[in-house]
Structure formats: structure tokens, C-alpha cells
């Protein structure tokens, strides 16, 4: 779950990391008032869950409360990278002597946290040449101590009070990373401003799987309406925009289904992992979700392990009986209780395929013909 | 032979009295797995399917030879249960549980590494040394003994491929599910190294998916292997920035793409199947 | 540094460990008022830094506010095990179904924390037979998780809700032990009261060396006046009650000096480790401390490593010049700058010994003759 | 030979630019210790006594072969400095600092044990392989090469005894100060095992004190040793419940008494000196 910039900054600040003075506004008048409180030149920053806001005009400077109000009005009317701006952060403009990059994230390959730092901040870290990036893995059984800060600040060339401030900041950022179950905490740019280090931006992603114990972290919804319904049902669902609605059991199997459809020239409407062992009710709801994407055909691909073929068949029949299914359903059904499942389908006018790619080819044929 | 587990492996089931634990204990017993005990705090002294239940893993290892443990424990409590098994000296830990927080997974993997415990998972179907021992949740009927080693990141897709192999007369030495999460205990390389040394294994099937760089790292090792490798990578059609069910299956910042993986594997000498059903045929051609 | 029972309980309570309801009083009237607030039968417990209060009458039950006031008056007049009672804790009387013992301390031999638990609480753990004691070492890189609680409660025979409560409590107690830099946290008895576990007593010792970072822990002075002066000077000082004042450099050397004096029949007045490398000023102050014990003789035993013999000699001369030294000084002085030191002493009327036990014998001779 | 350190040991000094660090660097150099670098954050690039100063231990090990490090770091920062040295791969760590919080000491010792680092101290005078290498703070002049291994919990008392040995023509192989705190890196047994194996060492002097059970544990090993041991235990006249300067030197709950230690040592075959000056004579009798 991604957090908005201002949320990350609030967390940073509560842990003792310096951030610019500022507050949130969702209208022009509030923005002007905040600018007045702060005084001097302010920055009006759109709050969206995407980067590259500056290029789209989502970050504006204002040298008076009136200008701040105008800037806020403009930004609040924007849609940036597909995200409607609903709030702006109005902040003091800080003096920038130098911009650094600092992040901690999970390295799946090393199976541990990795600190990524660079003396070339302000731009996307992907654009910074490798030789200007300092990487340091963290042993979770040890954690991050000031010595690691000293070593990294040495490599970054930070000295004096800025070096000391960096060494203080790094263990704090790691503490946030761990205590908030973050997948990513990123400060870019981390600004050298006189003798201070200021987190001028924040990017923070909290592990969805840890939200149950992160009650203090604000909840941010970043799903489409259907994705949200699926999530509430415990299903993994991603909208893809095509015309073949897909359901399979297992994430790998679902991806394999999409790939097979694509191989035959089909355009999947979605990814839907119905999971293993989902019963009649869950499967019924999953099928109803599929219908919401208004597909030309529904492709169901079940390899029954824990999932029972008869459950899937019964679910499909149940949906059919409860409401009209306006499009053809191509179903591949093998595995546990296969015979019963296939019989139920036949009795209710559905044909069952045995082989995945044959079923996929058929689904594509229907979609592309209609 | 086989890798990691075999017919002598003594297994305990943590969470044996839950629905999942009970059901799969039954299934594993039916497959022939030597289950010597279950653990369920507060339920010590009971029996499940004739298997003695203990209050703690410590109690179990005091009473039984325990070589492996499988966890059917809800995600919020999985780290505690894993730590219990690892500190009690269990050497193979199969964590079926999905949705374990990634920080807990890092902690589990770190401690396991330090204590010499092999962790299969989390978010895995488990591991099967076909015909000898199954630890986890895959359906019994598709796993028959043979010369093919299988290592995979995903579950049902692996059953599909194993089912195809078996249907084509190609049994398996061991089938290992690494787990679908971003941080898991075993990497492809760990398993490939074992297959390379295993006399039973003649060829290896690698079932990968988009996201991360596990397949790219595997390629570096495959280059040095004497045994042939056939791969299938899921997620060719997945758009960047979207998680395809698995925490690890996401293309972020242009890394972990399908093409990058396929190219790396092919450059290393692996055959890459376009669709899952092609895998047995590619194996056949190689083993001819 | 030992904490009073009520301080430990306040810490326990702030971490979520259940303690009896109660408050502190330093007079009879307050005690009666607290008893009235609590209602029913209360316990009036003397607050001293020593155990076995019950046997000395330092713990009294009272079934009315008036009785509580009387009990407090009695207890506040007591001196128990040499400790003057200055405060009492007035608490609700809790129902006791069973008494357990639970402690976490530092095991110097294992070099790690050890959890000690017993189903036989309420008495001194030293009196509990080994087979009724559960010991579990803790790996500090892992810490204490509920599983360790489950294993210990299994061994203690705790089941059901009490077992669950124990499993919850153990990690909390360990957290206190670590976060408060405790050398010992002990709950004895830990009372099973219905479906609750209540910490009916608390014993807590905080590492003196960690007080610099334990600002939130109340400071408890348990030193004699001279010991406190020594402590403020950074010297290790223990009053021993004999008539030979002793100063040496190094703890082992100081102990060796005491032992040598004792061997010859002497009675040391104190232990004083002047430390290594103490200069003229520090040594001067150390000698002045010695004079406060009103000894019959002063024995100074210096093996100069970092400590310079001339510094010690100069310090002694400085004290002699500043004030009369009313008793003989026997000094053994060897090591760094020995020649200079011995010369300075000679010039000022002091004889210097070369051999430790000869000097010690001389000091004893003087003390026992006077 | 000698144990733990010798004439080839490359040493760095953490805290080299402080008063203590600077003074003892001088003294160690005078003794012949191979000091290859110092560490002082923010002072990198400077020199102390001709020795290059680095900002971090990591930088030092990048530039030098480093076998050992000695810490002259104030107690509140000692754990951080020790962790730095251990994680940077330094294999012998001498921690002179006193008054380090005991929880920090447990953390240091645990990490060191895990990473294979030998920790001498905390609160130690250090270690001297006489005539070869001194790491720590003892006065140079008393330490001359010879056949006696010395292991001690206290400092100045050890100089006294080593001084007596040297004055009696008995040089030392290695003199090890375990440290006066309750939790220290090395135990008597660790060091006795090394002396037992060291060809240079012909007899061992053990300087113990009241408190803890280190001497009792040592006795169990002494029983098995082929080399003779002479012991002196300080604190015979100390009252229970009072700390005699060292955190470890306290008789609590009737444990760690003088008599208990002396009896254990004597039962194990060690000679126990009544007063420090008797040690050389006891050694002489044994070695005759």
C-alpha cells in the first residue's frame, strides 16, 4: 500500500526526521491561509500516488498567499498520470545546497533489506549511474547502527555536521522501515540545507500483508472498484482492459492462462486468481466479478488440486440459474472430482475442455469472432 | 535418491488441529509421508489421524526424531511458529502459509540461514520427493517417481506441468515449490545445485515467473550445469507495475521482465517452452 | 541500582503487566485514604531495598481505612534489615490461587539472559529444589517470542487462559529487562488469581553503567555518605568498618591489598579502587576520603602502570601540606616513575616500601598496636 | 608461539585520536606491536605517530590487512564500535573500555561468537604475547618472553604478579586479561585450552577473584590439563553483597565465594597461592 507524500512525512517527522514545515489543503482558501502562516515563498505539491509530478506541473512555487491560493486551485484541477489530484501539500520553500538520495527496501534476491544511497539525488535513482550508488545490505538480526551510517556517509563524501546528521538519520529511517512494515521508504531528494538534512519528499510503501498490525498507518485505497470488490472477497484481481474475462486457480496458473490467451491472439480483461480450495460460494462471487468487466467471453481454467471440480461446476450452474450469463463460457476442468464436475456441466449445457491450450484457443476464437 | 526429503524423513505438522492442518495431514499420510507428530498449543495429548499431538515443537523433538516440519499456521503467527521450529533444531521447514508480512519472512530466512535450517516457502505448495514423501498441499495423484527434477515459484501451474509430465510417462525425483513471495528461503540456484548432484535426477524443469531476478541468477548457474534444463516462465502478457497474485510477480522499474528472463535462460543453454504443455516434449527431445 | 517495589510495579504496569491496584503513602492519613479508595481489605507494604520484609513485620493486612492507617503508622516507624522505612505501598488484597516465580537476569557464565521460572513461587528461589525450576537461556539476537512462553508454561504445567496470559507476559517482561537495562527483573510471587496473572511483588535492578541512557528510570540512592562522595569522584569505594584505610589502583589489586592485610590480622576500613591513571588531583581527593573513615593507619598500595608514582607521591604531599594527616601512612610504591616518587616521599618524611606484603604487615602492626 | 596474538598480528586502534588512544598507541608501538592503522570518524587522512587514520573500520580493512582491533571508545559508543569491527571482519577485538552496559556486552559477545571474533574484555588491560605483541594498556617493562601463560580477571593485580614472575626470571608466553565485567568475551576455559595446546607455555598462572563461577568452571578443565596451574584468588576478605570495583566481583546469594573457588581449584590439582608474592615460588617448585 502506497502512502501519500504528506503521510510519509508525518511519519518521518514523528520519528525525528526533519521535514519542511507545511500542511495539507484541499481548496484554494486553505492553501492561501497555510502560505500566510508559513510566510515567504511556499511550494504547492499535488498529492498523488505516482512520481514525476513536477514534469506534469503538479508542483508549483508561490511567493505570496494569493499566489499559493491560485497555484492550489490550478493543481487541484489536474489529473496527473491518471491520478486526480484531491489534496495539495503547502510547504515552506527550503534552501537547497545539495540533493541526496536515500532509500531502504526489501531485496528479494539477497532476502534482506538494502540501503540505497547516492550523492546524486533529486532524479529517479534508476537514472543514476551505478558508480554513484552506494548499496549496503542489512542483517536483520543486527539492524542499522551509526557505524553503518558513518561508512555510507564516508562513501557519499558527507563530512562534518552533515555527516553526523546522516549517521543519526539512517538508523531512524531503518526503524521506520521495520516498525511500519515498509516495503520501501525513500527520501528523494534528501536535501542538504545549511547544516541540516531535510527530507524534501517521501515515498513509502507498506506491506499489504502487514496492515493487520499497522493500525496506526492511514489506509490508502488505490484499487479500482472491481479490484476492491475482489480484494474484499480475498481474491487477487487486476483489471487488464481486454475482452476475455479469465478465472484460474493459483497465481502462476492465472498468468499462464493470460499468456496462453495472448499466444492465440486474445486480449484478457483481467487477472483473477481464485486461489486454492475456494468453495462454491467464493467461486460464484468470482464469476460474478468477471461479468462486471463486460467481456465477450469468459474463460475458466481449473486444475483441481485442493479446488474441487464439482464445486466449480456447481458455482457456474448457480450463477447461471441466478441470472442470465450473457456471454459464452469456455471452461477447462481437470483434477480432483473431475468426473462429477464435467457431468454437472454437461447436465447444464456447458462443455468442458480437458486441455488448457485448446480451451484458450477456443475462447480467443469466440472473442475475436464476436 | 531425491533431494531435501525422502522416505526416511520424519515430519511434524504445526497447526495439525486446524482444518487445513488436519486435511493435509490426512493427504500426506495417504501419500506415504512419515508424520510422527503434530503441534497445537493447548491440545497436547490429543491425537489426529492416530498422530500424537504436542503442545510445543520443543516437546515434539523431546519425544520424536523430527527432521522436518510443515506449518499450517495463520500468517500473523507464522513467524513465531517458524522461530519455534528453527530454534528447536528442525532442519527442514515447509511454510505453506501465504500473506506472511515480508519483514517476518526476512527474519525467518535470516534465522534459518544462521541455524542451518532449509526453508521451503513461505507461500509454497511444499515439496514432494515423488513416491517417497510429500510435505505440503499438492494433490497426490500427479506425483509419481521418475528422473525429472522440478523447481517452481508457483503452485497450480506446477501441478499442471507435473500432471503433463506424468501423463507423458515422465516421473519426478523431487518437485520443489520455492514459494510465490518476494522473500523465500530457497533460491532456484540452491535447488539446481542439489539436482545437479542428485543421481536420480536426469533433467530439470524450472517453472519461473516475471518479477525479481531469481531466473536471471539461475541462468548463471545453469550455464555450469551438466544436466539439461527446460524452463517455462509465466507472465509474458502481464503489464508492468501490477502484482500478479504473488508478491514477487511484479515488473517494477523495468526489471524482472519476461523477455529478460527468457533471454538469460536461453543464453545459458536452457530450452524455454512457450506454453506449459510443451514442456514434456522438450524434455523428451533432450533425454533422447 | 535497585528499585523499590512500587517503582518496579509502575514500570510493569506501564508495559501492560497486571499489578494490584494501589498507591504510595508516607503517612498514616494518606494510607487510610488510599485504603478507603480501594475498599475492602488492603495490604500495607514497607518499601525498602531488601527482601524478607514479611518476617520482620513489614507487610500488614488491614480490613478498614482505620486499620490501614494504624498499620502504616507502625510500619513507617520500623527499621528492617538495617533499612529505615520511609514509604509504604497500600494495595488491594488479591485472591491468591497459586504463587509462581518468574525472573530474568544476566547469566555471566552463559554470557546471555536467563529466564528462571517455577511453579513454586512465594519463597526465595534459592530454597526451591532444582527439579522445580525451569531455566531457559535467551539468544539476544532473537529475543523472547510467545513460543518460549508456551514451552515454559508447558513445563510449569500452566494451561488454558493462565497459560495464554503467561505467554503474553513473558515477552513483555523480557522487553522491560532489555529496554530498562535491567540486571534483574523478578516477580515473586506471580499470582494466579482467578483467570488473571498478577505481579504481586517486583524486584528490579538496573545496570549502574546504563543509567546515562535510562533517564526515565527513577534514581535510587543506596550508598553511604562516603560511598556517594567516592562515586561522585568516579572512584569505587565500599565501607568495611575496620581501622586500616586502604587505597590501591585497580579492583583486583585493591582486593589483594585487603586480603593481605587480613592475612596479617588487620581490619580494613574500606575498599577503594583509585583506578588506573588517576592524576594528582584525583589521588588527593581519594586520600581525603580515606581520612573520613577515621582510621588508625592509612595503607596505600600502588603498582604504577598508567598510574605514575610521582603523581601519587605529590598527591600525598599535597594533602599533608593542606591539612594535618593525623595517622601514620604506610605506602608501597613501585612502577612507572618509581624513583621520582620515592624521592618526593623521602623529601617529605614518608618511607616507601617496595614489596606489597611487607608494607601490609607494617600497616597491620601499626593499627593493632595503637 | 604464543596464543591469540603474535609478532605478525596487524592491529588497528579504534579511537586513536583520543588521549587514551594516542598515548597507548605510542606505548604499543614502543613495545613492538604492529599497528597498521587507526580509526577516528571525521579524522580520516590524518596520521597519529606515523600511523594512518581512517574514518571507519570498513575503510581500514579496505586498505590494510587487519587482524585485531583495540577499542579506546567511551562506554556509550563502545557497542557501536565493536559491532563495526566485528561486521567488518576483524577477528580479535580487545575492548579496554570499562562501564559498558551489560546488555551491550551481551550483544557484543553474541555477535562476536556468531561471526567468529575473539573478544578480549570488556574492561580489560588487554593481552600481551610477551616480547611479540601487546594490545592494550599494561606497562611495557614487566612483560618479557618466557614459558608462563597468565590468564586473569583483574588488571593491576596481574601486573603485580607478572612483575613478580619477571623479577624471578619467569617470562610469559601470553598474558590475557579476561576483563572485570560480569559478561566478557573469553572465559578461563577458552584461554586454558589454548595454553594447553601452545608449545611455548609450560605452566599457567590463573588470577581469579570472587564472584561468578568462572573459576569453578575453569577447575573442571584444569582437572584434564597436562600442564600445571598456579592460582591466586582475590577477595577472600570481601563481604557478601558488595561489589569490589568489578561488576563481576560480588558474592550474591552465597555464590562465587573465595572458599568455593579455592576448594574447586585445589580439587582439580591447581596450587593456590595465599598471597600474590608466593606465585613465582609455587611455579618454581612445579617446574623443577
Overview of the molecule:
Chain A has 370 residues and is an alpha+beta fold. Chain A has three domains: 21-92, 2-Layer Sandwich (Dna Ligase, domain 1); 98-213, 2-Layer Sandwich (D-amino Acid Aminotransferase, Chain A, domain 1), CATH 3.30.470; 225-369, Rossmann fold (3-Layer(aba) Sandwich). Chain A contains eleven helices and 19 strands. In chain A, strands 1, 8, 9, 10, 11, 12 and 13 form a seven-stranded antiparallel β-sheet that branches. In chain A, helix 7 packs across helix 11 and helix 9 (309-322) runs parallel beside helix 10. Chain B has a seven-stranded mixed β-sheet with strand order 3-4-2-1-5-6-7, sandwiched between helices. Chain B has a seven-stranded mixed β-sheet with strand order 9-8-11-10-12-13-14, with helices on both faces. The model of chain B has no long low-confidence stretch (mean pLDDT 95). In chain B, helix 7 packs parallel to helix 8. In chain B, helix 7 links the parallel strand 12 and strand 13. Helix content of chain B is 34%, strand content 23%. The two termini of chain B are 22 Å apart. Chain B has nine helices and 14 strands. Classes of the chains: A alpha+beta (370), B alpha/beta (288).
